[in-house]
Design brief:
This protein folds into two domains: about 180 residues, no CATH class; about 45 residues, no CATH class. The chain contains ten helices and two strands; from the N terminus they run αββααααααααα. The protein is elongated, with a radius of gyration of 25 Å. The chain has about 240 residues and is mainly α. A hairpin with a 5-residue loop joins strand 1 and strand 2. Helix 4 crosses helix 7 and helix 5 crosses helix 7.
Amino acid sequence: MKINRRDTLKTMILGTLGVGAVGVSSCKTDSDQSTVVEESKSKSYGRTEDEKLRDEMLACEPSFFTPEEATTLGILVDIIVPADDVSGSANDAGVMEFLDFIVKDISDHKEPMRSGLGWLYRESMDRYEKSFNELSQQEMLSIIDDIAYPEETKPHHKVGEKFFSRLRNLTLTGFYTSRIGIEDLGYVGNRPNFWDGVPAEVLNDKGLKYEEKYLSQYITQEKSAMVAKWDDRGNLI
């Protein structure tokens, strides 16, 4: 395929990076028994109590996708974000769990996702007389190449293109808001620099100066231009 995904996707996602994850612990059955629901590896993102309750309710709903649809999606997301020598794949990052959550959370995704999967099945049958899940990798990529590049898509592939564009956007969101994706970006968040007062040249330009009693306590002018360095755990070095 023509996708050079790491550099391109990093550029796309860095400008809109947010923090998100799906974290739910358990559901209650009618018999008041707890059924464990697969947990996200990270539940540190901020949620209000109402949002946490909604997350739990959505996680307790049955999966939106059929087993066959889930298999297809699992193949597709790893085509979009495969593993490389830097990080794992979309499946490694829990993107499938994210997709199931997001279509239940934002129901506008349901019909386009199901219709798109149906289109992919029919296209596979028309070309190869097999379902997408039964195709060889080369056969799969021959279809994906026809719908992955909007500027090159033929009119009779437009439905597939719209589906794949939606799936690609959701996959990138799920991947690059996961721990694996954030580590892949090398994103460390906002970190404060040293603040030891207004630089001396700025004060001099304005004819100002710090009072000596504060200068000795709080201000170290020689550090004002230094760049702070932090370790991987957020500690000042």
